[in-house]
Design goal:
This protein is mainly alpha-helical. The chain is built from nine helices and three strands, in the order αααααβββαααα. Helix content is 62%, strand content 4%. A hairpin with a 2-residue loop joins β2 and β3.
């Protein structure tokens, strides 16, 4: 991915379809992934597994975060010079994406079209058919009204979009041209280091990384650090210098002579 960047200018349809797919996969509102995760969370809470339900709920944000890195690294940021004339994907690749995105959007707005047949199919073995109140799915812990959620999210996104469009029409927007990213007389260790999305999760790792690091890894990292410190201390004596070793040998014989002389006396 570090070989790409800024492809939203060349492939706007692919960018849009990828963004919708990432939102659906990560389980954030208002697309189908959110509905599936909402049903899963309700099922866990009905079992009394509240901690697992909480982890499943907050994992949506984490899932969106690590999948957004794909969107950012490939489509956003600065475009490579060799991609200046890159074109959108051909229709044979875009048409299936349009069909799949259309299915996702329809099922996101009207999940009853899919959930009712599935519920009827598994009811003889699992029981507990879904309860609907119009387009709202009812559970013990609340309800999920997919069309209303779609309308609310669309409104939330439309407001800033309209504001940005009005600003762009009333103000003179200055376009920033392509510029070079240079290193001050330094050569990067790897090509990945030159990409703007390099080390994307560094600040998250500094903030909450300790929560996901295995205790065994922390133990061995500590052991390695202590070993390095001990080695640095011993390097004062074992420094590879022959004269130093000869001095140690001389000091040893002098010490042995004094000890033996003290015992004889």
């Amino acid at each position: 991915m570090y070989k790409m960047g800024g492809l939203i200018k060349n492939m706007p349809f692919t960018f849009t379809f990828t963004m919708i797919a990432i939102i659906a996969m990560s389980g954030v509102p208002p697309l189908t992934g959110f509905g599936g995760k909402w049903l899963l969370t309700n099922a866990l809470m009905e079992k009394g597994w509240y901690w697992i339900a909480a982890f499943a709920f907050f994992s949506s944000a984490v899932a969106f975060l690590y999948m957004f890195r794909l969107l950012q690294t490939v489509f956003l940021g600065q475009r490579k010079l060799e991609h200046a004339k890159l074109r959108e994907a051909p229709a044979i690749l875009l048409v299936p994406q349009v069909v799949m995105i259309a299915v996702i959007m329809v099922l996101s707005a009207y999940p009853k079209l899919l959930l009712d047949p599935l519920s009827a199919a598994v009811a003889p073995w699992l029981g507990g058919a879904l309860v609907w109140d119009g387009f709202a799915l009812q559970t013990h812990f609340g309800y999920w009204n997919a069309p209303m959620i779609m309308a609310v999210v669309a409104g939330v996104w439309m407001v800033p979009l309209v504001i940005l469009l009005l600003i762009s029409l009333t103000l003179k927007i200055q376009k920033v041209e392509q510029f070079n990213i240079v290193y001050a007389a330094e050569r990067p260790h790897r090509p990945e280091d030159t990409h703007f999305a390099y080390n994307f999760f560094a600040h998250y790792d500094r903030a909450i990384g300790f929560l996901v690091r295995p205790r065994a890894t922390a133990f061995w990292n500590t052991a390695v650090e202590w070993s390095y410190s001990l080695g640095a201390s011993l390097r004062i004596f074992y420094n590879g210098n022959g004269q130093t070793y000869a001095l140690f040998i001389l000091m040893y014989f002098v010490a042995m002579f004094l000890v033996n002389g003290g015992i004889l006396l």
